[in-house]
Each structure stands twice: as C-alpha cells, then as structure tokens.
Amino acid sequence: MNRIVDLIKKQPIWIFVLVCIVFFSVSSPYFFDLNNFSNILVQASTIGLIALGMTFVMINGNIDLSVGATVALAASLAVGLQSELGIIGAVAVGLMSGIMIGALNGIIAWKTGVDAFIVTLGAMIGVRGLVFIYTDEQSFYAYDLAYSDFGASEIFSIPVLALIFILLTIVAHLILKYTIHGRNVFAVGGNRVAAKEAGIRVGPHMLINFILVGFLAALSGILLSTQMGASTPNLGRNYELWTITAVVLGGTRLTGGFGSIIGTLGGVLAIAILRNGMNLLQVPSFYVLIILGSILIIVLFIDKRFAEQQGQGVGA
Amino acid sequence: MKALLGSFRPGSKNSELSPLQFFGKHGISVAFVLCVVIFSLATDRFLSADNFFTVVMQASIIGTIALGVTFVVIGGNLDLSVGSLLSFATVLVVDLHDKVGPGTAIILMFVFTLLIGAVNGYLIGYLRLNSLIVTLGMLSAIQGITLVYSGGKNVDISDQENTWFAFFGREEFLGIPIPALIFIVLGIALQIVLLKSGFGRKIFAIGGNGTAALFSGLRRNRLVFSTYLLSAFTTGCAALILGSRVMGSQNNVGEGYELLVLAGVILGGTSLLGGSGSIIRTVIGVLILAMIQNGLLLLGYPYYTQWLVTWVVIIVAVWLDIAAKRGKLLSTY
Amino acid sequence: ETFRIGITQNNVGVDSYQTTYEQAFEEAAEAADNVDAVVLDAGGDVARQISQVRDLIQQQVDVIIIWPTDGQAVVPAVKRAKDAGIPVVVTNSNIAEAGQPLIASFSGPNNIQQGAYAAEMMCDQLGGKGDIVQITGQPGYTTAIERQKGFEDRLPEVCPDVTILDSQPGDWNREKAQRTMEGFLTRYDNIDGVYAADDNMGVGALNAAKSEDRADEIIFIGATNFAVGYEAMERGEYHGSVYQSPAEDARNALNIAIAVAKGEEVEKMSYFDTPKITRENMDEFEKPVF
Amino acid sequence: MTSQVETAANESVNLQPAQETLLKLQNVSKTFPGVKALDGVDLDVRAGEVHALLGENGAGKSTLMKILAGIYQPDGGEVILEGQRVQMTSPIEARDHGVLLIHQELSLVPDMTVAENVFLGNMPRFANMFVNNRHLNDRCGEILTRLNCKFEPTERLGNLSIANQQMVEIARALVFQPKVVVFDEPTASLTDYEKVVLFGVIRELRESGTGIVYISHRMDEIFELSDRISVLRDGTYQGTFETAQTNEDEVTQRMIGRDLDADIQHQPPELGPTALAVQGLAIEGLYSDISFDVRAGEVVGFYGLVGAGRTEVMETIFGLRKADAGSVQVQGEDLPISSPSDAIDQGLGLVPESRKEQGLVLGMSCKDNTTLANISKFTKYGWIDTAAERTIFEEYMEKLRIKCPGWEYETLNLSGGNQQKVVIGKWLSTSPKILILDEPTRGIDVGSKSEIHHLIRELAKTGLAVIVVSSEMPEVLTVSDRIVAMYDGRITQCFDRSEVTEDSLIRAITGQNT
Ligand SMILES: Nc1ncnc2c1ncn2[C@@H]1O[C@H](COP(=O)(O)OP(=O)(O)OP(=O)(O)O)[C@@H](O)[C@H]1O
Ligand SMILES: Nc1ncnc2c1ncn2[C@@H]1O[C@H](COP(=O)(O)OP(=O)(O)OP(=O)(O)O)[C@@H](O)[C@H]1O
Ligand SMILES: [Mg+2]
Ligand SMILES: [Mg+2]
C-alpha cells in the first residue's frame, strides 16, 4: 500500500489517468469496455513506442525532434520495397533506416558537440526531404495482404500491436532501471561534466540512446503502416511534439537526469485516453485542440507545485 | 555598423583570430556570401535586384517573427507558439478588416495578439513553467481558438483594390517592398535595443544566469514576460505583412512556421541555452534559408531538396560556430 | 427507427470547403429526424483517422462515412469496419482500388474529371498553344494526386502544343501558392497560364502575378470554385474553375449513408455534378459561400 | 627578510629526499586565451607525504592539478609517475594510473543516490551489463563508515547538506587504491567536526603510502597537516619548504610577494543610527524568531554551523524569500521588501553564498557583471553609457586588485577568488547603505582575504552597516564588532566583540547554552 502511495506521489500523471478513466466511464457508455481498452492501447502504441526511446534520450539530457520524419521514412521503405525485397526484407530495411538516422544524429551530436535539439531539428527537416525524394510524394500500398493482416491480428483477443507495445515497455523499463547503461544515462543527464570526469563515456551513451529512439520510431512507423497496409509521405507529422509531451507529462525532466518508463507510460495513456474519450463524447475538433493544449499546461503546473512541495530553496 | 555586427556576445574578446575562430565569428556572413556566389554562378536569374527583393520579401514574414523570438531565446526560453499565433493574428486582422475598418482591425489584432503573448509570458515568466512545453500547449490551444473564432472558414478582404491595408504587403517605398522594409528596419532597431539598451543587457543576464540576475535585483519574471510580449508583437507585425500580401487568410497559414523561425535563429548562432545571440545574425540566418529556397527553385530542383540542404547548412553552420569557441573541430566527450 | 451515422472527416478548418461541408452535414443530419450523427475530424492525420474508425466501430454505429486523409492507408480500417458488419461510405475523395470491394458506395466529385475539365478550359482559353505552370495541392493527398493526374493526362489529348513548364505544390494554402508563383515568375520570362488545384491557391498565384504586373498576360484556371475565385472572375482577372458545392457533397453522402443503413440498393459510384465555370457562364451559378 | 626566505628555499631543494619520489611534474606550462596560467612549474610528491600547494587566487593551483588529473592537456612539460613518463589524456587514464582529483567545485549528480555517486563511472556489475545494487550499497556503506558519515548509501545526494556532499566527493577517491590523491580546497564547506574526520582519513592514506597534494587557503590547516609546502605565484614555481622548518609569514611572503598587511586594529566604531532592524522574522521549517539590528558604521558577524539558517535569513531580508512573520525596517522605515530590486532601492546589497550560481553571469564580461545590479544608473533614457561602465569597473578592478586581463574578459575564466572579488565589486558599485556578505572569503587566498577584511572595516568606517555571514571563527573574530550566533534556525546569543571567547562562541553555535 505504501508503495502505491509512494508511486502516486512520484507519478502524479497516474492520478490524472485514473481521473480520466472514471470521468469517461461515467459520461460515455462505450468507454468502459475491454474492447475499448485494447483500442486505446493500440492507439497509444504509436506514440508510445517512440516515447520509450525518447525517455532514454531525454533523461540523458537530449531531445530528438526527428522521430516524426523517421516514422515516415521507415514506413515508406517498409512498404515501398516489399515488391523487391519481400515483407521481411523491406521491414528490415525500414528498421535499419531508423537505426541509421539515430546513429547519424548521435554521431553528429557527439562528435561536433552541437546541441541535440539543433542536430535533430535539422534532421527533422532533412529526413522529411529524404522521404519525399524516395517516395516522389506518393503513397505506397502493400500488395501482400499478410502485411495489413498482421496489423489487425490478435493473440488471446489482445491486439498484437498492443502486446508488442507492452512487451517493449517492460524491456525498456528493465534496461533503464537495472543496466549499467541505464544508470549512466541518469548520471550523464544529471551532471554531464561530473559524469565525464568520473570516466563515463558520454558520447557512446548518447549514441546508443539515439539509435534506440531511431529504432523505436522506425518500428512504430512500420507497425503503423501495418495498420494501414500503406504508407504516406506525410506520416508522423507532429509526432515529435506529441511524444515529447507524453514523456514530459510522465514526469521526465526536460533538462535530463530524472524520469521513468512507468511515468512515460502514464503520459502516453493519458493522451490516448483523452483523445479516445473525446471522440466518444463527440467533442468538436476545434475544442479538442484547446482542451489538449490547456491540459498539458495545467498538468505541468500541478507537477511543478508537487515538486515545490518537496522542498526547494530560493525560487530560482 | 562594425560594432553592431561584431559584438554578438557581450564580453567576447577581440584578439588575433585563427581561421577557425574567424569562421566562428563571421561564419554566418561567410555562408551568406557563399550562398550568393554559388547561386549567382548557377543561375543568372538569381542576382538581380528584383529577385533580391523577392528573397527579402519571402524572408520577411519568418524573419520578422524571428526578431522577437531571438529575444526570447537569448532570455533562455523557447517559443513554439508563434506559428499558431501568426495564424490567429492574420485571421483576426483580415476578418476584422471588413467589419470595423483597417485601423481598428490592426489595433484589435495587436491587442489580442499581445494578450496571448502575455499569457505565454505569465505562465513562463511568473509561474516559471517550462517554456518548451507551455508554448507547445499554446500552439495547440491557439490553433483551436483560431478555428473557433473563424468557424473554420477562410477569411477574405472583399475590396482588395481600395484599402490602405494593402500598404503592408503590396506597396513599395523607394523601390523597396514594404515587407522587406519592415523586416530590415525592425531588425536594425531591435539590434540596437539588444546591444545598447539596459533592457537588452538584462535579457542577456537572465538568459546567461537567471538566478544571478535575480540576486542582482533584475525583475526576472517581468523581463521574461516582456520577451514574450515582444515575440507576440513581431508576430503581429508579420501578420500585417501576411494578411496584406494575401488579402485573406486560412486558419493554418502559419503551421510549421515555429520551426522555420527557430531554424533561422539557430542558424544565426543564437545559443539555445540563452545568454548569447544577435539580431543581425538572425536576419542573415533567415535570409540564407530564404535564399536556399529561392535558389533551388530557380535551379529547377523539386522543392523538397531545399530541406536536405537546410539540414546540412544548419548543422555545419552551428558546428563551426561552436568549434570556433571550443578551439577545435571535434568535441571531446 | 433512428440510424447512428458516424463520419470521420479529413481536416476540418484547413480550408472553408471542409468546414462548410461539415456544417452542411450537421444541418442535414439535424433535418433528417431519423439520424443521429457522430461527427469526428482526423485533423489530416492518417493514424488518427484509423483510431477514429476504431472508435466508431466501438460505438457500433450503423454506417461509417469516411473522408479519407489518404486513399490507400485507410483501406485496412475500412476492412475492419466491414468485418465488424458496419458498411462504409466514402465521401469526397475516393479510396484506392483495393478498397473498392469493401465499400458500400462512394459519393463525391470526380476529381480526375475535374482535372480534365481544367485542362480543357486551359486549352480553350490559351487557344491551343502556350507554356503553363501548375500549382498542386498538398503532396500525398488523394484529391491533389487525382486532380493533377486528370489535368496532366487530358492536356496533351486536347492541346498537344501546351507545355507544362513546372509543377510545385501550394499545400492548399494561398500564401504558399503565392510564394511558389513568385518563384515561377522569376524563373520563367514567359508564362501563359497557371493551373491551380483549387481557387484558393489560384488567387494566391493571381496576387503574385498582379504584384509583378504580369497578370494580364496569364490565364488562371482553378478548381473548387471559392468565393474569392468567383469575385476575381467577376473582375475579369480569373478565367475558369470547377464549380463544386460542399453542401451538395455533404447531403449526397448523408443520403447515401441513410439509404445504406436502410439496406437499400445504392449505386457504387455516386458522383455529383461539378460543372465548369467560366466568365461566360458564371451567371448560372450562385456565388460560393466559402 | 628576503634573503632569509631564499636560504630556506635553497635548503629545501638541497634536502635529500627522505622517501622516494612518487610523482614529478616538470616544467609544466599552460596558456589559456589571454592568460598564461602556468609557466614552467615543477613539483615533486613523495609517497606517504602530504604536500601542500599554496598560492594566491589565480596562481594556477587548480590548473596544475587538472593537468595532473588529465582534465587539461599541458602546452609543455611532463608528468613522471614512479619514474615513468605518463600522459594523462583523460580523467579515466589518470584514474587508471592511480591519480585522483577531488574537486574544488562539487562534481556530483544530485538526483542519484550517494552510493551511485561514489561509484559513478565505476559501478559494480554482474553479467557485465547489469548494476549489482547490493554490492554497490554494501561497499559504499563500508567507505562511509570509514569516513564516519552518518547518512545512508541509498539517500538521494541532493538531500544532503553541502558538507556531506563534500564527504561523498571524498569517498569517491577511496573506492580505488590511489597512488596520488589531490584535494583541491576540500574544507571550504566542512564543519570542524567533519574536518577532523577528513584529516584522519588523509593521515590514514598517508600511512598507507599514498602521495597527497593538499590545496587550501587556510594556513592553520596546512601547518597542521602537511609535510612539505610548495608555493605558486602567478603561474610560476616559487620553491618548496619543509613544513617543520618554515612559518606562516615566510610562505605568505613567498606567495604574495610582500608582507601581509598588519592585523586589523579594532577601534570602537563610531556608530550611527540604526540602519537595519529585524523583528521576529520567521519562516516555518527554516528559522524562527530572528531579531537583531545593525547600526551604521558597525560590522555584525553571523556565526554558525553550515545549515544553521543564516543564509535563509539574509535571503529573506533581501527579498528573495517570503517571511511568514516578522518585519524588516531599513533606516527606521517599514517599507516592504518583496524582491531584490526593492532591497536595492532601499540601499541593501547581498554578496551571495555561491558566486557561480548566484553571483555572476559567467558568460558576461567583468564589466557587465560589475554594473549588473545597478544598470539603471548607467542608462540614460534606456541606453547604456559604456564609458561610464568601464570607468567604474576599472576603479574597482584597482581597488579590489582583481586579476582580470581586461574589462571585456568573461568572468567564466577567472579564478574563484577573482570571481568573488568581481561580485563584491558589483555590490560596492551600487553604493549600498547596508551590505550583507555571505561567506565573503570562501576559497579566497590569505592575501586577498586580509584585503577583503580591511575593506570591510574601511567600508564600516565610512558609515556603512555591514553583516558578515561566515563559518570561519577567525574571520568573524577579525572583522566583527558584534557577533550573532545561530544554531538550528534560532539566534542563541549575541556577543560584543570585547566579551566574546572562542569557547562561548562554540557553545552558542552548537546549542549547548540553552
Ligand atoms: N578554462 C580556462 N580558460 C581560461 N582561463 C582559465 C581557465 N581556467 C583557469 N584560467 C585562468 O588561469 C589562471 C589560474 O587559475 P586556477 O583556477 O588554476 O587558479 P587557482 O590557483 O586554483 O585559484 P583559486 O585559489 O582561486 O582556486 C587564472 O588566471 C584563471 O583565470
Ligand atoms: N540538514 C540539511 N538537510 C538538507 N540540506 C541542508 C541541510 N542543512 C543545510 N542544507 C542545505 O545547505 C544549504 C546551506 O544551509 P543554510 O543556508 O541553511 O545554512 P547557513 O547557516 O547559511 O550555512 P552556510 O551558509 O554556512 O552554508 C541550504 O541551502 C540547504 O539546502
Ligand atoms: Mg582553484
Ligand atoms: Mg549559508
């Protein structure tokens, strides 16, 4: 019990998730339903997978704005190359592309010392250019129906996409909490100079995280394309913003050094539940924008109050 | 003018410069000249007064916003809401134009735009919430507000021929298009403010070390607040240009501008950590981006190739900039 | 008996057409006393549209109307709906071949036809000869692709002597189109005609040409006649467009959906009429409200 | 006098090394843009000795040690460890060679646990990939016991007091079997008790044959602890002395190139009217019932242990914190102070505790920092008068003897002591009526320290009311007319200078008299 109280104190976003669940259950007859929850999980999985990687990157003190473009690149390759390489080959190339973009970002940030925000802002613009060059502005269609069948498949009546998301969430949680890499990610984000002087190789850790988020963004894009049986060059626009939002809602500090996968999961679910609930309640789309924006700011405000209660010095 | 260009970071020292340092200091100007030369050689249509003004005019909307955002960034914050705010301001001024006349429309537009800037400023300056997330939230909220206001419809000025509102986007003064003039004049004025006024100095201080600034009696809250008012103001000016140029507006007209603005500011060498930066360099940064766009189009490349070039240019420019400060090309961690 | 009809739209608010459509749809649903409408908007995002289809299936609506953000990417979602026993009506912009067997009906304009109309008008106005540029819609969106295809396929058939110098997107955005046109004007000393994939962009191009004093020598052809385009046509600055009524578009979709819900036979392809509009025949049309 | 010093120096050089030389630095040079930080410096450290390194602020001590620890690369010269030339290209390499540096500035991660900090970059692992948490905490516990630390390995580091954080920094060095350990001003924020523990550890290390370099500005410590003393001045080597055969005056003379100014002569101050009156000030959880007053021309010392709440009281007076109760009167007027700018308007100045975080905008020039607190005085219609700014900066550069290559120089690269002087200059330039100095000489060399003490007395003479918060007893005793002792958020006693004894003071700050 104490542990639960403790968890809630550390992860106020889960309170918000609970409040949302209660609210929507009361106000919509369709909400509280096993089917709907697996809907929410599938809907959450797209942003959620990226957010797992982004949590590592952000705890490490960086940020990745290029994930949205990576989603489109990986999806386009994975669908577009199927006629030549078959599904497996094309998917492999798609995943590779995410790893490459991540590695490129990581190496540039590491070797040049340019802030990751700038490196990935550049990549966000440039990778989208690559997507357009490759696709020639066209949508691609997966001729093999097995591809889109995978996106719709279920195991024990749980959608496979949701399962993949849950599984990878657990893996990410374990890596962050129990490996040397995970621990050093916190150290580097908490105090980069101290970490460096203690002999932690800052650059490789950063690189690994960028590769991780690149891979997960690619995976997310590919899984999304299995839901569509197609890819479009505009896929993933603004995903970087929503991913960052989810991670921050989950309590990860923007300046690095603090955060958790559990929190991120809460942030991702919060957004997915809000969207799903508002769809069920038929909130007009213009107001959805205002509500989401306001909630983001309000949660940030509450989170800050929480942090301040835990004792801080001069309001610096 | 030399002083204005030179001292982009208060307190940096002038001494003999190694090639790397030279590039770090003047790299953005070098890149500018390089762009001009390359494109001039590649196409004879590039280097003409007409095209030059086209470039400046195309840069003027993003550029004018970037002027205010530079202050925000030097003050140690970000503003991602300017794209939405531009849509909002443009829709507002165009819609009100026919209802209350251009003069009142402009005044009302500035009032409401500054009001939104004040909300940003209050949340970030006084409540000390993180600027990235607040302005991200505002990006979404302002978009919603704009749509609710317009009912999701395009707005148009019905009598496009006989309104002095055309001044801001369509007329010329001494052969210079007014948008370019607004951009350049505002740029010079703000550069002087940044470097020579107490206000500018204080912005550098809060961005460089907010706590120390607070301990020195600077009203940090108010100063941060005022940077957001300033960015809302320049966004309002950009809305005048945009509304007048198009004589109408869509609700998503400014979508994605926030990142282009930021790209220009960063290209100008303003540090995202705050405490250093320069308006003139931002102006050059924005012009380079506009030139890339214009030049590649003139050369007949598909429009998306400019994105690839922009990618490379941003990273190389910022890299050389910090490499010069570091004294070597590669970083050591 | 009341029918629950769910609709997920492409991107309301991005331009007046979609907004007017939405209003007309809601009004029509209100007027029909046997309809309970669930109106959603995908905000231009394919993934969100797929989520919304899932949400509509979850609510067990009787019919889903979908305005695809992408003609190919929504096919599995449509399949999902069909598997759940919910018929799907596609509106405004058609879905890909593979989806055709899955849908109950398509209702909307024929975008390929519209592109072809534009090509014919362009040909007429130019007198069969000239150099033109094309400003397309947002890359990747079906309407943009189809109009471009219709235009480019038809043009050489009717006017082999008209060449397309260049095509660049205007993203359905007037300001963007204006900038694109400025580029064209710098680059090409001689432009005889502009085809813009909607009037909103066409008027942007007109603005650009006017500020260079080159509007007189250019023929402007658009599509989806907007109020600004109509006015410009009245002033004699704008030469042709395709008349398309969002209200009719919406009503058509709703009526078909109701018919489908009732289990009636409906036509697979239900195009509504989108005639050419030029200066000569514009009196026959009301000025668009958007 | 001079000749005497030279003889001593010669003697020291001629001495046969009693133990083997462990580490030798030869002819080391380092230039930073605009500054020659080290110019051909030699140093040898023997196994099993405590070797003190002395020098004014900016003499190059930290730079030399950072070169030793692989953080900086020297422009010239070499490092010889156990007879082998080695190149320290990174801190890790230095660590692998057995050379460890304990930083002047804390170099820790506040959001991680104590144990994680101690084993930073060196976590015990299993399966080569995972952190061995149990091992981690157990080993850390052992080291903390050795250091007599009372906190748990699983405590979050940021929750510890600065002093305890300093102990963690020291604990990190004990993880390894170091050959050479460098302590760069380790005691700046330690209490006396912790200092005793630390010295015990240092002696223990010495017994085990470790060579220790010890940097400090506190002469008493140096003479208590060290075996030999080397002196740097302006980046040049000034000689090495056997501690047993030299004295404070001699090394001080070597260090600053002149005799220290005579001791402060206390004359009964000419007291003006009450400048600052504090009544019943309290913030829940931090301090309570703080009442005192300061008169013009008077220096009041605030003495207490780290964490006694002095800083918080001063920050409240200065408008940085909101009091729950009580009032602050400045010159008899009860104007509210709700922000530092109110405080400045009313003639207050605060030299804060942490120069880097609270005192300076490091990226700005010396000049700009100097005028930051009263920039409005240098602006006309909103525009800055740069010439006037320069004049004022140069005035204080001279007055405070700030070692700074020029008014445009960034404060980032000044040595700690000179940074502190810039902060003091900043506040003096506002011509305050009441000046609060929080730990004004932390990390400042003896020469500058005595200058600052003189300056404080001079300022008081001109009618300024001064509050000095300090954790160093000699300092409060030297500068204060009255001393306020604080313990655990309360004022326990006020002493007049004439009646105070060390013993009563210690009792007061440890709460033993209540
Ligand atoms: N990274 C740097 N860049 C430029 N100059 C530096 C840098 N580090 C130190 N300096 C300069 O080198 C000189 C020596 O500095 P150092 O920190 O070694 O002094 P110190 O003897 O440790 O002084 P203190 O007792 O104040 O700590 C100073 O003049 C300082 O300004
Ligand atoms: N017991 C403690 N637990 C946690 N943090 C502490 C504790 N004591 C002090 N600190 C931290 O150390 C800092 C200095 O302590 P404080 O300002 O309260 O005392 P002080 O009397 O001014 O001591 P000094 O100025 O000598 O450090 C505070 O900002 C506080 O965060
Ligand atoms: Mg030092
Ligand atoms: Mg203190």
TrEMBL record, chain A:
Membrane topology: Multi-pass membrane protein
Pfam families, sorted: BPD_transp_2
Tree of life domain: Bacteria
InterPro entries, per database record: ABC_transp_permease
GO cellular component: plasma membrane
Location within or outside the cell: Cell inner membrane
Entry keywords, A to Z: Cell inner membrane, Cell membrane, Membrane, Transmembrane, Transmembrane helix, Transport
Transmembrane annotation, as ranges: 12-31, 37-58, 65-81, 87-109, 116-135, 155-176, 206-224, 244-274, 286-302
Keyword Transmembrane helix part of the UniProt annotation: yes
PANTHER family: ABC TRANSPORTER PERMEASE PROTEIN YPHD-RELATED (PTHR32196:SF21), ABC TRANSPORTER PERMEASE PROTEIN YPHD-RELATED-RELATED (PTHR32196)
Similarity field: Belongs to the binding-protein-dependent transport system permease family. AraH/RbsC subfamily.
Protein name per Swiss-Prot or TrEMBL: ABC transporter permease
Lineage: Bacteria, Pseudomonadati, Pseudomonadota, Gammaproteobacteria, Pseudomonadales
UniProtKB/TrEMBL annotation, chain B:
Key words of the record: Cell inner membrane, Cell membrane, Membrane, Transmembrane, Transmembrane helix, Transport
Gene Ontology MF annotations: transmembrane transporter activity
Keyword field contains Transport: yes
Sequence intervals crossing the membrane: 20-41, 53-74, 104-125, 131-152, 173-193, 225-244, 256-275, 282-301, 307-324
GO terms under cellular component: plasma membrane
Locations listed in the record: Cell inner membrane
Pfam families recorded: BPD_transp_2
Keyword hit for Transport: yes
Topological category with respect to the lipid bilayer: Multi-pass membrane protein
Family, per entry: Belongs to the binding-protein-dependent transport system permease family. AraH/RbsC subfamily.
Protein name in the entry: ABC transporter permease
Organism: Marinobacter confluentis
Lineage: Bacteria, Pseudomonadati, Pseudomonadota, Gammaproteobacteria, Pseudomonadales
UniProtKB/TrEMBL annotation, chain D:
Superkingdom in the source lineage: Bacteria
Compartments reported by the entry: Cell membrane
Alphabetical list of Pfam families matching this protein: ABC_tran (PF00005)
Cellular component, GO annotation: plasma membrane
Keyword check for Plastid: no
GO molecular function: ATP binding; ATP hydrolysis activity
Domain ABC transporter as annotated: residue spans: 23-259, 271-513
Major localization class: membrane
Keywords: ATP-binding, Cell membrane, Membrane, Nucleotide-binding, Repeat, Sugar transport, Translocase, Transport
Alphabetical list of SMART domains matching this protein: AAA (SM00382)
Membrane topology category: Peripheral membrane protein
UniProt protein name: Sugar ABC transporter ATP-binding protein
Organism name: Marinobacter confluentis
Species lineage: Bacteria, Pseudomonadati, Pseudomonadota, Gammaproteobacteria, Pseudomonadales
